[in-house]
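FW: tagging you since you asked about this chain on Friday. Here's the raw sequence from the shared folder, copied in full. Didn't touch anything.
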Amino acid sequence: MRSYSGPLNSGLTVSLKNLRHVTFSTRNLVFLIAILAMNYTLMRPSPVDLLFIGSLLITLLYLTVSETTVITRRAIYLMLILGAWAVSYFLASLPHLGEEFVAFELLAKSFAISIGFIGGAVSMSWGRQNFETFIKIYVVSCVIASILGTIGFLIQHPLLTWDGRAKGLIDDPNMYGSFLIPGLIFCAYLIPRARISKWLVLGAMGIILLGIMLSFSRIALVAALLCLFAYIFFENRKRPRRLILIVGGFLLAGLTLFLIASLTSADFTEKLLDRLTFAKAYDLGEDGRYGRYLQVLPMIIQDPIGVGVLQLEKIFPEPIHNIWLSSFVNYGWGGGIAWVTLVVGSFVVSIRNYRRTREPIVIALLWSLIGVILCASLHEGEHWRHMWLMFGMIWGLNISNSGFGPKHSSVQKRQRPTGSAA
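HL: got it, structure written out here
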């Protein structure tokens, strides 16, 4: 019996193809709108959380109708690691569920880390062009946040500042400063590849750098400059003359921004000199930031399960402000090991992707993540959506998709003799 392959089957094929395209495009649109909305975090849960969840639901639909897209092994590994971290903080916090704010804190953490899995689930079907679109949208989001923070600092609006420091519509200056770091590195990636005016990208970079400076976050500024110059050095390591010119240009631009900020606001120099120190008063002393680091070390050894969320506040005047120690002391050895595995695994995934593709996007994502992790190492970064997002983008990047792969592969195919064996 012959199978029928007439107009009806053709119509179904076309309809399914259109459905896949519409689903893929809609999912990407919702996800990128969520990236734009990340510069507003004053609510828990935030509208951005609903957008990310919406993009995940559409992704599940896309996986259902897609012919070829499957969940990659790395996306599964990411889900397992994030799941282990979540299980650890739930287990450690079970004895305290009846306490005020504990359940809400667990919910907030779950929303935050889910962005890592969502980022991986979305980006695993992306090609190189989709990643470049993501990079551009993230830069736009950072420019918006930086402009709001700069205006807030100039007029000292309480909604856009904290303790006289710029924060835009983000919770605090430290989160704000760390959020801008990937945007700065993404600008460095875009400058030599910009199809639009390079001056436009340079302008965006200047605005973002100014926002980081006005956050007066010591670690954010140090991490931003360290990761930016590391990325520039890596990209131009075989062109020393160009490297010197670029670094000199950035130093000159940074000095210009400093002078403009100093002349525009009398508070800038005063605030900068006040913040220009390795240790403030709240960092020192037995219950200071660094003192708390030493005090929790015995607690980690004595309590493998962890003390649970919001419990250290009963002992210390402030949280631990270090995501490495916090993962161990709050969520036990399981949480700490899961965090270390996630960070080390992100390095391994990035290095393997780069060695196989020589793709600069991989390095830009890695240095962006490093900058945020450096900030989270001195602050309470567990709720930073952009940090979990960067984890998701790194683990989700699938080099078998269009646009990735060894740069010389297409040349080899063209040079292969016609009669050679496949």
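FW: Residues 73-407 form one domain.
HL: agreed, and The chain has two domains: 18-70, 73-407.
FW: great, closing this out.
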